[in-house]
Design brief:
By secondary structure, this protein is of the alpha/beta class. It folds into two domains: 165 residues, Alpha-Beta Barrel (TIM Barrel), CATH 3.20.20; 116 residues, Beta Barrel (Lyase, Ornithine Decarboxylase, Chain A, domain 1). Helix content is 30%, strand content 24%. Keywords: Lyase, Pyridoxal phosphate. Pathway: Amine and polyamine biosynthesis; putrescine biosynthesis via L-ornithine pathway; putrescine from L-ornithine: step 1/1.
Amino acid sequence: MTDRIKQFLADNREDGPRLVVDLDVVRDNYRSFADALPDTRVFYAVKANPAPEILSLLAGLGSCFDTASVAEIELALAAGASPDRVSFGNTIKKEKDIARAFALGVRLYAVDCGAEVEKVARAAPGSKVFCRILCDGAGAEWPLSRKFGCAPDMAADVLERAHALGLVAHGLSFHVGSQQRNPRMWNRALQVSAGIFRDLAERGIQLAMLNLGGGFPTRYLKRVAPVQTYGQSIFRALRRHFGNRIPETIIEPGRGMVGDAGIIEAEVVLISKKSQQDHVRWVYLDIGKFNGLAETMDEMIRYPIRTDCDAEALGPCVLAGPSCDSVDVLYEKDPYLLPVTLEIGAKVLIEGTGAYTTTYSTVGFNGFAPLKSYVI
């Protein structure tokens, strides 16, 4: 926790869970990405945290933006980004939304099939498209599914179709899985990408851009390598597979940009046991899966939780949220260790929560208000 967040919490007491994000950390993270991959453009993944203060800071620093919807495009433009610094990176878009993005000046679109190419060709003629390929997400704490991307052997045909329809077949993209703790996982995807570049060159189509995706981790309970290590590993893989003809590259950090910049302050609502013989307490917080902690699904993301009595003896707990829904349990398969002296009404700090919390919070499930957010 930064001193600025600590002071804000001390000076501004209030009820209910709240997220506090320190812009100084976001600024430092952006500069780390820019330094680690100096020849690569940063496209911040707006979905991670679309707070206007964060977007304005990043726009001022020179960041570009990866967006998933027209609403996110409008947020990026309102923050000061020009349309040429915006990518419509969702592979699943309504044609009217493509047309709206085109009217706003956006000229870079993700695709992963012929049908999406045809929509872009009709609604955004002459634009640049990049084809997302499926990628092994092994090693990621939040693996991505087959929902986005096509098999690598299909990508050349998708981009050839784009070229035939008057679009610019601009490049490829992939994603090695969110919270990817292995810096070497980009190597195989880059090897496959280089093969597709060669295939299209033989068809007379010269690709110019490679989107390396996101996946850059933030610190939770497990140690992660610094972003410089990722940059070095990725650059070595680029040289290995592309030689001296490395294409334009971009990255799309989200979690790695804002995750460690935020802390959620929450409160213990109830502590109970399910039987007299039960040795594991149930600890209920005033925040759960539906209030911002959706990434505890299947216990994939385990957040560091701090209390005022962490120096005392610890005991196993099932950690759950406040809603009347049986799936609103955060950690049960692997019980969480919390102080045995923890009491109802105690405040807890959930660290590493700057990303994918406010954007996953419902607008009022069970009548609970959306997660409050403060950017300082």
